[in-house]
Amino acid sequence: MATGGGSAPRRTDKCLTCNENVTKKDPAVSCDVCLKWCHIKCCGIDVPTYETMKAMENIRWYCDSCVKKILKLISDVARVEEKQDKIDEEVGNVKELVERTRSEISQMRQETVNDLGGVKQLVEQTASGVSQLRQETEKEMESVRKLVEQSKGDILQLQKEFDMVKQSKGDMSLLRQEVDKGLEVLGKQNRDEIMKMRQEMDKSLVIVDHLKKWDINKEVAELTNAFVNDGSWAEVVRKHVTNEMKGVKGDVEEQMEIERRRKNLIVFGVPESETGNDIDTVSDIITQALKLDFSRHIESIVRIGKFSHEKARPIKMIAKTFEGKREILTRAKMLRELDDYKGIFVAPDLTRKQQEFDKDLRVNLKKIREAGEPEAVIRSGQIIKKNENGKTISVLYPKPPQQLGGK
Question: What's the rounded Cα separation, in Å, for the pair 344 and 335?
Fold first, then answer.
């Protein structure tokens, strides 16, 4: 604060109240903010107070206009500090959420490692089975090779015998001798066939003429090529092994897909939200209808499929634990009894193969009930019939495999 006795006002300074000039001799004070001067009589300051203010150091004086601005500034600062406190609180909440998320991610990573361990074990078992199948196939291939070599020898010997028959020119005695040699070569397996041929030869020489017209060389060449040259037997075995490998690969991929969907649930019949946010609706189903804790049981939700105005898309829910998923499925039957939730039902997230199998079960369940078994139910992938005590008395579908030797 400046006073008339200290820093002197300039000639151009005017009193901010009366707008008259403030001279060096005038008792006046200067505002410490706007630096404008004011006569003490205009500002309502008496002489004793003015003298006291002159004698004191570091005393401040503010005009009414600046006081209002300072008060407003103080109010604004208070609001800023209040907002800062809220921001600090929110930052603390975010940090807590981040830490909790890190913990959950760590837990999920551990569960994934465990799941991958199970898949790895399955793959190792499959590889062992494939290795065993390969060994058995190699043994079968070796047997096939031996059979081919043996068949080649028999075919060549048969060709030789028939060539001799064609050259016999009606010598039935020589033909019988050659047939007997054929019996020794081909063994008991074709004995009846050759004996029948011998009897026919005895009846008429027409058979010999017929044999002369038969192109045995062409037939033997084709048969030899089929068994020896083009690898027909090896191709059959190769196709068998390839099909087995495809089946094993398909089983492994199916098992991995089932593992990925292990904690998933599908909710049908929930109307589309105008805001696109279905959390409130699903939370209401879980908490109000099923009487469960939404935050404890559900990890995330998402609509699946292409949007349509005609039909609501299903919602995929991912449970935090497999036990939580089972608990939700168990209580989902309660939705049928509640008017507000009719038309809404919950099902596990099945693979395409599982969906086809489930559809087949339901189609056959309907047929079985219509055929006179109204108490039939689906349990663990089978259609069964229970007695009054709830104990399974027979499996209606699929039928168990028939025992060997059974009728």
Answer: 7
Q: What share of the chain is helix, strand, coil (3-state, %, to 5)?
A: 60, 10, 25
Encode burial over 194-221: b for 16+ CB neighbours within 10 A, e otherwise.
beebbeebeeeeebbeebeeeebeeebe
Q: Give the residue from 301, 316, 349 where a domain finishes.
A: 349
156 and 250 share a domain? yes
pLDDT tens digits, 37-68: 999 999 999 999 998 888 887 888 899 899 99
Q: Name the residue among 49, 47, 25, 48 with its Cα closest to residue 37.
A: 25
Span 93-146, pLDDT tens digits = 898 899 989 988 988 888 888 888 877 888 888 888 888 888 887 787 777 677
Distance between start and end Cα atoms, the chain: 119
How many distinct structural domains can be found in the chain? 4
Angle, vertex CA 22, rays to CA 21 and CA 25, nearest 5 = 130
- Tokens found for residue 378: 């689906």
Q: Report the 3 state secondary structure along 76-138.
A: HHHHHHHHHHHHHHHHHHHHHHHHHHHHHHHHHHHHHHHHHHHHHHHHHHHHHHHHHHHHHHH
Structural domain contains residue 72: no
| Boundaries of domain holding 55 | 2-62
Q: Which residues contact 321 (CB under 8 A, 6 or more apart)?
A: 263, 297
Confidence (pTM) = 0.42
CATH number, domain with residue 295: 3.30.70.1820
By C-alpha distance, which of 191, 169, 168, 164 is closest to 180? 191
Same domain, 332 and 366: no
The reply to whether 225 falls in a domain is yes
**CA–CA separation, 214 and 162 (whole Å):** 10
Q: Percent of the chain, pLDDT > 70?
A: 70
Residues 6 and 39 both lie in one domain:
yes
Residue in the structure block whose two tokens are 């609501």: 312
Residues 303 and 275 in one domain: yes
Torsion sign, CA atoms 71, 75, 77, 81: positive
Length of the chain: 407
Same domain, 157 and 232: yes
Tell me if 253 sits within 8 A of 195, measured CB to CB: no
Examine the fold and report which residue of 193, 222, 256 is the final residue of a domain before the chain moves on: 256
**Which of the two residues, 404 and 5, has the higher pLDDT score?**
5
